[in-house]
Amino acid sequence: TAGDQQSDFDATIAADGRIEPRDWMPDRYRATLIRQIAQHAHSEIIGMQPEGNWLTRAPSLERKSILLAKVQDEAGHGLYLYAAAETLGMSRDEMLDLLHSGGQKYSSIFNYPTLTWADNGAIGWLVDGAAIVNQVPLCRASYGPYARAMIRICKEESFHQRQGFSILLALARGTDEQKAMAQDAVNRWWWPSLMMFGPPDGESPNSADSMAWGIKRFSNDELRQRFVDMTVPQAEILGITLPDPELRWDEESGHYAFGALDWSEFKRVLRGDGPNNAERVRRRKAAHDDGAWVREAATAYAAKQAARMEQ
Ligand code: 3HC
Hints:
2 strands, globular, binds 3-hydroxybutanoyl-coenzyme A, mainly alpha, two-stranded antiparallel ribbon
């Protein structure tokens, strides 16, 4: 009965077990997972654009091949995540249509421009650093296909974070101009990186359910604090200043205290009014349209193979 199904589901969640695609699940659990996993997948593929912008201008062959590998990894992450979301019953075509029409979101962070080479360092260090803090707990998310996809993604994100740190370290040890370029990039990416963790706990409508269902393991503010605590000592090693005059070690709480985020900026970017929203969506749609012939050819080939198998 429906009651038995609900109590089996509740028992699995209470025992910290995994829900698998063929298991019964509440409609709202399914809907919130599709929402979060699709948004995550979209972020991975939109996230290829800001750094893709620098592939032809990387300062050495080594940096270029590393950046190329990194951008390709993001495409792979998108694919694992779309595949995980498809197990919940929404097709990839439908998710991409929703991305293109604005019906599903992608992360706010990818609506900011990459103005100099140092931005690739700041993205790796801060954006991928924040992604790891947010995503490591998702390896224990209650939905099996999502949790399993996150394991490999997190391993690759660690490599991305280190390559970003390495770019900034080289610049920070360079000429005055290079140091200034690194500092400027960090000044621009710091606050948007903190916004990646989502709205403050008191204004996070999805958190209560997602925590109860074992999708989220820590709140938005807890993870944001963890990221700040982890990053400040790394900034000291780089000799780069984080652009927050209120940032200080707080003996009493055992954490770094930091200044208030500009949530009106966050809301603006979510509404589509960030510096690069229109450009990101336009390029994504153009890439999709340009790839139509590949999808058509693959479908025709698959149909031919299937027909041959039937003979
Ligand atoms: N950008 C865009 N939208 C955001 C956001 C952000 N930074 N933070 C929150 N939101 C949206 C939520 O999606 C939600 O809107 P919706 O109900 O229409 O979906 C609304 O703001 C309210 O936020 P909540 O806190 O209630 O939402 P969640 O419980 O879903 O928490 C989250 C937000 C912490 C981002 C969570 O969804 C999550 O952990 N997602 C998985 C991680 C992810 O998507 N990361 C993407 C960026 S990192 C990345 O792509 C890797 C890089 O290397 C490319």
